[in-house]
Amino acid sequence: MNRPLVITRDDALLDDLLRISAAAGTEIDVAHVPAHARPYWAKAPLVVVGDDLADDLAATGPPRRPRVLLVTRGDDVDPTVWRRCVAVGAQEVLALPAAERRLADEFADLSGPSEETGRVLCVIGGSGGVGASVLAASLARAAAGRRRSTLLVDADPLGGGIDVLLGQEEVRGCRWGELVAREGRLNPGALQAVLPSTGHLAVLAFQRGAARPIPAEAMRSVLDAGQRGFDLVVVDLPRHLDAAAAEAAARAATTLLVVSASVRGVLAAAQVLSTLREHTSDIRAVVRPGVLDDDVVTGSLAVAGAGHLPDQARLAVALDRGQAPPLRATTSLGRFCAGFLDAFLDEQAGPAGEEPRP
Predict the structure, then answer these.
(1) Domains and CATH numbers, the chain
(2) Which segments constitute the Rv3660c-like CheY-like N-terminal domain (predicted)?
């Protein structure tokens, strides 16, 4: 695979470009003189020309091509820089450090899948204590067990950490606190590499201690990368949707609303539903045990039913011991996850079906 070409002999500029490309998960070829760039000029998917060598490069008369950027350092772009931009056939001038995000996006676009093919599945509780986070974690584990590359995203800063539900709170890797400052596109491979992962499941949770709300831009970056790099992205939503949670809900192919089959449970779920409907349309109820029949619950909320999820014996004991929820076929969670994923993955597959990513 051809790599982006950088043409510069400015060491400080090159250090910046190497750092930015590495953060985007992209390797680059470097030419320190224009003559060395000639073999790569036409083949490189992107050419970044340092302002220091723009005049020398223009003197060689390089053929016109798309995706050429002229990069300079400093805040001011004077008229001579624009002249050099035209001379080398560049489409744009990027001044660092202000344009670092834009340049990182350009590099990231060249790495990994370019299309957003992964499906987003959101899970939200209609009220507290109905097991929405447990269901989200279990669905993600079940999908990963089917060799579907799966990203589990904790979008609830007050939820206690979804990694705890998996018994993975000690697994090393990035949490939200290390990603909240990130804007622009993330490279899918780089995201996979830094997150705690087991088998086909990667997890993005909150760190211990004070957890701040996630900026919408950070959630957008993570979901962009998740959809490009994973088969399935499962998001555990908070009941009070903030900007980041709304971003996730808007991308959901389906959102599961976990509802207690009680009068108060349905009334609380109706409140959550009124906000949720502003951001997504395919909402299905997962009914938990209570005094009301499932069809009464779904009819009162005017949503489709995704199934009934009974209580699971000794589940609380397993979670308190730091164990992931058991998903054997003999458990209620195992049966629900298997049945729902069979239907969901079949619905979301293309006409000829969809193979898991390697």
Answers:
(1) 5-111 (3.40.50.2300), 119-347 (3.40.50.300)
(2) 7-114
Paired tokens of 130: 């109905």
Question: What does each C-alpha distance from 254 to 233, 269, 303, 345 come to in angstroms?
Answer: 11, 17, 12, 11
Rg from Cα positions in the chain: 24
> What is the per-residue pLDDT for 354?
55
Neighbours of 146 (CB within 10 A): 15
User: What pLDDT score was predicted for residue 358?
Assistant: 58
Residue whose C-alpha is closest to residue 41's, from 51, 31, 50, 32: 31
Kindly tell me if the per-residue pLDDT of 90 is higher than 70: yes
> 3-state DSSP call for residue 333?
helix
Q: State whether residue 332 is helix, strand or coil.
A: helix
Q: What is residue 181's predicted lDDT score, i.e. its pLDDT?
A: 64
Spatial contact of 167 and 138, defined as CB atoms under 8 Å apart: no
pTM of the entire predicted model: 0.72
Specify the pLDDT at position 2.
82
Residue 209 and residue 202: Cα distance in Å, rounded?
21
Looking at residue 351, its pLDDT comes to 45
Angstrom distance (rounded) from CA 188 to CA 198: 17
